[in-house]
């Protein structure tokens, strides 16, 4: 922390600009100049009141303005600190509205950042597969008016997106990871059915030793899971394998003992929880991964390649998805085709 209260400067009482905005600007100047760094505590509300001779309401509004800008946060005891030093004046803002923050969504984000020039800033908001949260976040950022582009991963169900976004003009909005059928908005997406099928077919010689393919998910479904199932079952049929879609319940107690792999089965697993259960079940039943039983996870995890038996993965090229999103942000163009899906073969098959 390299500032004193005197560094706050002055505000112009005769100015037409509201006092709270002037105070917010003075505080922001300390951040932009480096006198206040990431995590540094800002002057208290009482210090701001005393220094500028303003009301408590004005001081609080100044800090709320900085919070709205995304560069200041507060603790429960109302102390304020710098939470973001990367968001500077003049940067073009992009909203990345994602369903979750997973390792593969980080790959999208990494590709996006690498594809953008240094004059962009990406805001990340997570909607947790709730359309209501998605809509409120989109409307909030649209109302602020500072975003040049909106990159939105729709909810898995996608039905409400169609009804809502049909009234939003195409232009600066791109759907990521999934398309919304029936809308003219561009997308950079996965083709779950054909992508899964073609990725497995490309490695069919490696997989031919298995007699049955088991798609393992928890006890729910959505259009994406149904598309995955279609691609997997088509591959199994073409290879003369049996096929089953096994659902489990959700808790540890309910899942324990429900996954019963047998020699010659190839498991494609959607969920980390179930992946661990499948690995445990193989060990308990004396089955060796990669020879007795095959195991493929959907989407890569940060440690899959480093496990005692590295886990094979069915995954889209999420980094390329981020690069393509950056191309849309900077040029307004997309290639209009799905990103590649591949099977990364490791020792578990």
What does this molecule look like?
It is elongated, with a radius of gyration of 25 Å. The protein has helices at 19-32, 45-52, 56-69, 103-115, 131-144, 159-165, 192-201, 204-207, 223-238, 252-255, 272-284, 318-331, and strands at residues 72-74, 80-82, 92-98, 120-126, 147-152, 173-177, 187-189, 212-218, 242-248, 265-269, 294-298, 312-316, 341-344. It has three domains: 5-82, Arc Repressor Mutant, subunit A, CATH 1.10.10.10; 92-189 and 318-337, Response regulator (Rossmann fold); 192-316, Rossmann fold (3-Layer(aba) Sandwich), CATH 3.40.50.2300. The chain is of the alpha/beta class. A six-stranded mixed sheet has the order 9-8-10-11-12-13, sandwiched between helices. Strands 4-3-5-6-7 form a five-stranded parallel sheet, sandwiched between helices. It has a two-stranded antiparallel ribbon with strand order 1-2.
The ordered H/E elements are HHHEEEHEHEHEEHHEHEHEHEEHE
What Rg do the Cα atoms give?
25 Å
Number of domains: 3
Tell me the fraction of residues in β-strands, as a range: 15-25%
Alpha carbon gap, first and last residue: 54 Å
The total count of strands amounts to 13
Q: Report the mean per-residue pLDDT as an integer.
A: 93
Structural class: alpha/beta
Shape descriptor reads: elongated
Helix content: 25-40%
Q: What is the assigned CATH homologous superfamily of the largest domain?
A: Response regulator
Catalogue the unreliable spans: none
Q: What is the spatial order of strands in the main beta sheet? A: 9-8-10-11-12-13
Describe the sheet with the most strands.
6 strands, mixed
CATH class category name of the largest domain? Alpha Beta
User: Could you please say which CATH topology of the largest domain applies here?
Assistant: Rossmann fold
Number of helices: 12
- CATH architectural name of the largest domain: 3-Layer(aba) Sandwich
